[in-house]
Structure prediction request, 182 residues.
Amino acid sequence: QVSIQNIFFIGASQLDKVLLFKLLGPAQLAVYLFAVAIPNEIQGILGNINSVAFPKLVDQDSRDFKIALLKKISLFTLILLIPVALYWLLAPYIFKALFPVYMDSIFISQLFVGTILFIPVSLIWHYFYATEHKTALWYGTILGPTTLISGILVFVPIYGLIGAVIAVYARAIVDLISGLYF
Prediction:
């Protein structure tokens, strides 16, 4: 079952790039990819903290554990405000130094960096994998990517690059809500 879920997840994550190319064109896609490059790298680094920080699930069904997990997610989210704010302030200088040709990417990058605040939500999904909560995992595998693709199809034609960022936020919010629901 997990393999089928991964196929859908990977397919959807590639389909978004194809749709962005078709809807935005190559020049705007390049601006978008440069805009999200550094925030995605930051997410990759900070996302590894989840794996290390995730406690051993000794008492997996405990209400106390679930409350403790939500507290850790809240604390981690508050801590992530620091790198998000720093990047938001430093993005113009970073782009001027590293990507001077893509100065148009700064605003989109500043908008996109806020998605880092959703990294702690993956702790909920770690919990679902650890407890083998199949229903939650199936919904999570389908809802998040479907929201992203739908968001791209709806928001990009209307708002362009900002619409692509809106689609990413919509997916993150759906992942959060469905994770909290289950």
Notes: The radius of gyration is 17 Å. The chain has a mean pLDDT of 87. The CA atoms of residues 80 and 86 lie 10 Å apart.
